[in-house]
Structure to design on (596 residues):
């Protein structure tokens, strides 16, 4: 069997089987970050993302933007757990003919965004490679009482996203987006999010991750799904790399959130009891079922 | 200017300039691991290494061995600081046509070695890639009183290595070596190593790292430099990827170490006062100077 036949999630399922984990590991593979004990009040959050030329960026993209993205996708994972970021390790695979200036700019892109969110780049590795390859591993922290996972959504919770969706590639949003750390910080301090994820595989695919982890269903309302630049609905639902937060909040917290407006959010639906069922009320008031088809990595 | 002109260490120097680091960072870029505060008695150690097909392994190498190496090179960095390993994050870039079995075996190689040293693989990332690419980020810990860095060697200290050197590629040692974590643990508990590094760039290049960081020189004795399979001296001095520990120990600790023999070690010389000067007494009793030329990554 080839990788292209089992797909990314099939592969992850295979690999995590039989992975022994120490007692200090609260959550291993299967959420936006791994979660381990740090001290009495804090968990450590750990995440990593590899960016490859020709897949996550093109040789023509500005090096500062490539560096920005490499840091941002990891920061987005930390945000999705309600945490803050601290340390980064950066591995670079570089073609020997790369101009040094280009490498410096990639680094600048990472550093500038990192600094904004209090990240220190404390280590790394550099190698020869045919194609530019960047791996960032990010270590963060979260107050134990503020940890938010994919599981925890309850029937009746309202579903929110932090920004318009779709067309991330065409609009170049995927290269210059701002990870939602500030929003996540406010959310966990004020609004008790019950489940959260960052949208990297697409709204529907990532909402299914929450539904599966929480053992619930959901109902979306087409009219209120925010789209980037009025893009077709299809793209808002299925495009990847939006990097907005998708989260579930109890009803009274949801009302406060909508009233106070200290975070830019869009309420797009509610959690239901119907396990793993995702439906949408379309513009004509009809209920349609949305299947779990997201971005395929292989 | 191209990367191939500035080389890896020139690049690292460029990149680490102006890197702001938080107060909790005891050591950033420039040692085998980064060192940050964990709690009252422990530091956290962080390291990362990227392995690329065609550079660190070939498509013909056994997948279990490739996985083993990806974990081992990182464990070796933790050993070099006197620590133990805890958590690993694994990023894979995989050709879509890869047989799933091959990927499982790579993972098995990592897991088996990780388990032996108490490492939990707690997260990762998988991507499509033309060539197999593996990045491991490893988080470990060290008792504050046991931390060993590159700096700290003092004139008069004896210089040791933990095994024979050279011919690592030809002998396939680079694919199946055992990282010296056990030896490092014994060393820091019993023999007060003053400075330590793992030999990845070659004996001479890595000894220079200790000399530069410590502001000292060294004298080696050709006769006692252990060579893998009687390989030529040149290779024992300059080949990379031996992954033995190279360390400096005070005289009386050195005598105890040689007497007790609870660690397999070879005494190869002594630290001198002559800053950044590295000489060797050859078999005819002549003193020769050894220049700082190690493995070039670019």
């Amino acid at each position: 069997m080839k990788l292209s036949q089992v797909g990314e999630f099939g592969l992850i399922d295979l690999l995590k089987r039989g992975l022994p984990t120490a007692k200090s590991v609260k959550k291993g593979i299967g959420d936006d970050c791994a979660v381990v004990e740090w001290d009495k009040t804090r968990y450590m959050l750990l995440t990593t993302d590899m960016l490859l030329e020709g897949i996550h960026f093109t040789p023509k993209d500005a090096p500062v933007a490539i560096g920005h993205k490499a840091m941002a996708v990891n920061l987005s994972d930390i945000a999705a757990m309600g945490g803050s970021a601290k340390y980064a390790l950066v591995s670079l695979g570089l073609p020997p003919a790369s101009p040094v200036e280009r490498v410096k700019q990639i680094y600048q892109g990472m550093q500038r965004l990192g600094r904004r969110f209090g990240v220190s780049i404390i280590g790394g590795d550099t190698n020869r490679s045919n194609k530019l390859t960047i791996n960032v591993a990010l270590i963060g922290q979260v107050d134990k009482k503020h940890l938010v996972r994919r599981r925890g959504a309850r029937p009746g919770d309202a579903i929110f996203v932090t920004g318009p969706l779709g067309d991330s590639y065409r609009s170049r949003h995927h290269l210059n987006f701002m990870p939602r750390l500030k929003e996540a910080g406010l959310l966990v301090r004020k609004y008790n999010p019950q489940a959260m994820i960052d949208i990297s595989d697409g709204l529907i695919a990532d909402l299914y991750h929450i539904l599966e982890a929480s053992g619930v269903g959901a109902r979306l309302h087409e009219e209120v799904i925010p789209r980037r630049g009025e893009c077709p609905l299809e793209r808002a639902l299925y495009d990847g790399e939006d990097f907005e937060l998708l989260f579930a909040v109890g009803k009274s917290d949801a009302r406060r959130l909508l009233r106070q407006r200290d975070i830019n959010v869009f309420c797009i639906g509610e959690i239901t009891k119907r396990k793993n069922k995702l439906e949408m009320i379309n513009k004509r008031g009809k209920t349609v079922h949305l299947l779990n088809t997201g971005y395929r990595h292989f």
User: Anything to note?
Assistant: Chain A has two domains: 23-145, 148-289.
